[in-house]
Specification:
Structural class: mainly alpha
Strand content: under 5%
Number of domains: 1
CATH topology: Serine Threonine Protein Phosphatase 5, Tetratricopeptide repeat
Shape: globular
Number of strands: 0
Number of helices: 5
Largest sheet: none
Amino acid sequence: MELWEAARAANPDLVTFRTPLLEHYESIGRHDEAAQIAREILAVNPGMTAEAAANQGFAAHDPNEIPALIVKLRRPGLP
């Protein structure tokens, strides 16, 4: 996660690095950090949704896993 955090710090206006980091933090129970990243994503792209983020291809997900991923991305605040 150090590389994702470095990319996040170096690119404040880029959502790409934040989405997998949000997913990771939510998965390991770091809900406050996940919520902060969701706020950062929405500040840069107010129209971003959990569904759009899940389908943007930031990680190799089985298509059958997309619905669960959408739920995971909504928990910290993506609409």
